[in-house]
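Hi R.,

Here are the chain sequences for the assembly we discussed:
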Amino acid sequence: MTDSTPHSSSIPASGPAVGQDEWVARHAARRLMPVGPLRTVEERLRIVPWWAWLVLFIAAMSLLPVVESSGYVRRVGFDTVLYMLLALGLNVVVGWGGLLDLGYVAFYGVGAYAYALLDSDKFGVHLPTLVAVPVVVVIGAVVGFLLGLPSRRLTGDYLAIVTLFFLQLFQTVMTNGDSAFGHNLTGGPNGILRIDPLHLFGHDLTVQHQGVFAVSYFYVALGFFAVVFVALRFVNSSRTGRAWRSLREDPLAAEAMGMPVNWLKLMSFSFGAAVAALTGTLFAALNASVFPLTFYFVLLITVYTMVILGGSGSQPGVVAGALIISPLLEMLRDPGKSRIIFFAVLIGGVGLAARRSRTLGVAAAATIAFGFAVHELARAIDASWVSGEKAGGFAGAVDHWVVHPAQLASWIPPVSYIGLIAATLLVTTLHGRLRLVALVPTLYLSAFVWENVMLAKPEPARYIVLGLILIALMILRPNGLLGERRVEIV
Amino acid sequence: MALLELQGVSLAFGGLKVVHDLDLQVEEREIVSVIGPNGAGKTTLFNLITGIYRPQAGDIMLDGASIVGLEPHQISRRGISRTFQTLRLFLNMSVKENVMAAAYGHTRAGIFRSMLRTPGMRREEREIEALAHERLAFFGERLMGYRWDQPAFSLSYANRRRLEIARATATNPRILLLDEPAAGMNPAETHEITELIAKLREDGGYTILVIEHDMHVVEGISDRVVALDHGIKIAEGSFESVATNEKVVEAYLGLNTAATK
Ligand SMILES: Nc1ncnc2c1ncn2[C@@H]1O[C@H](COP(=O)(O)OP(=O)(O)OP(=O)(O)O)[C@@H](O)[C@H]1O
Ligand SMILES: [Mg+2]
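And here is the predicted structure of the full complex:
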């Protein structure tokens, strides 16, 4: 009677003795560590304290305006720092609190609009920056707290949908705020214009200096970034940070271990919102104008991509995510660069997927041969099929390979697009040699769709390439670039 | 006066009476085992005491004051801590941080002091770390050394059970509720756990309530045994008297299932 428990029977008869957990521990460590010379490098680098990395990083970033005089590049640098700040804030909510906050960019908007109302001709209020910034941060924190109130009992999907609703609400209020109770509060779709630049001690920080983007904003943003990074890092290694992560791991256990889960959720929301609002002030002061549609889904997706790709939960990770994605999205605006990125991702992705298979070379050679064959065949049948615009260099090489008609029949884009999706799905279901056979035309079709359909529409194409990069990276590093190894279920 | 006292506590899920009119008294520094067949309502009893469920009738008193209606974290701060039968560790946090996190309730440093790293906050952090060190050292070398900084998911099942206990004691409780601490352990480890539970009381002065299926463990540790079946207390007393109790034997052999409604 006494030994008939369901659990005791789960012990293997031979008994794992001490070895098992020993093995698991070593195994985990081994997988985290690259082998060979890299390993010693990584071990040595670990001795460098985090703040030294931060100082190095800030110093390197500070050099950007020194080595690059183009106003455009400096401007992209500034935007990148804003993204780094946004990613740090979202990391508090998503990475540590484990709360899926889909309304996050609304707080960015709240910050931008709050600064706009406190420092513009709109109502003739012109608070000094040293007053306005703390006030905006507090407003952001309070709004985050208030949104958290109804959400605090919500988890998972419900929380996501409530916060998404908040984002929509923010949009609606800002867009229709030009006739709220007979007053024009937010400028509606036209936004708020003529917002003050940052001004310290009666001295304006100009945005443009002799017609070129002034670097002062870049350094102010970098300063904010350093402060926020350090402050959040300190919070993360305090009892509050541990409680946030406990909440992410298991809210019930956290609550039973004395952590007030509802309060911690509110704090996490509030903190993320405050960081976003702070970033909003920089955005508004630099652009001198705010419009509702800036703070919408595209931005939300972009910031989430940075956090996830960099490694949700890891501060250096999400910063790296922003540092990669933000310039990348800029480069993708240029069809020439976006073409190179697309093919690099495509080749890299196939390479990753077939890392251990010897058929990779075969697939590559077959795809190239297939391309030339199709190209020649098309030309033989009708020369206009390959008469699309020609260019030199890499683009020229691609043009000798991909069928590129000067005139595209209207049915081709949707059919080829849907065909590509179907072919991709087919490839994932096939195995062995069949898979290889299906892979070749699929790769070719994706190049065709890219050249003929995507490049004609750079805006969606940018985000599709971003999606491809995400997929490729998720295969290689499921927890993001610098994310810690994670288990979801054990 | 008893440290923990349950008076006529009842809870039903839909029509299923999981705990029914249960009275229980636990004295300071006592080790009480709760036994009963699967589904008897033992874990539910723990969930009621820790505030995860709220009783539909009856009262639960800690030191003479009712704790019914308090949030689980408030009950934890009043000195009741627990482990989970299904193991609910913070898997992606390090072993050390699992224990440190549980010190939240009896530490003070707020968010702003943490951001500024004030001397007081740093002192408190050192105390929390020392506490974690001490709680983990209770299990000898098993959770020490390189395992400190390993994520909890890399631990074996038995070590996870130990970590659950270490985490529960880090809340500085007066009463420890252990839900099947020996489940999944081999005979040698089970024997060790039996000794550790006695040592927990010696060293920490805890009052301990244990749910356990392994009768050797129950025999080894209990001052008193309470047997539950279908949410009803069917026997209470010394191990010998409960183990030989007719109702208990029947409940375990399943003869009584039709009779008890
Ligand atoms: N949240 C719930 N909703 C509905 N029924 C529940 C719930 N929690 C527990 N029960 C039911 O209550 C009964 C008692 O469950 P409990 O987990 O307390 O049993 P137990 O004595 O701990 O059993 P075991 O020895 O298997 O752990 C079971 O029939 C279970 O299915
Ligand atoms: Mg149970």
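Confidence is low (pLDDT under 50) at residues 1-18 of chain A. The CA atoms of residues 372 and 401 of chain A lie 5 Å apart.

Let me know if anything looks off.

Best,
T.
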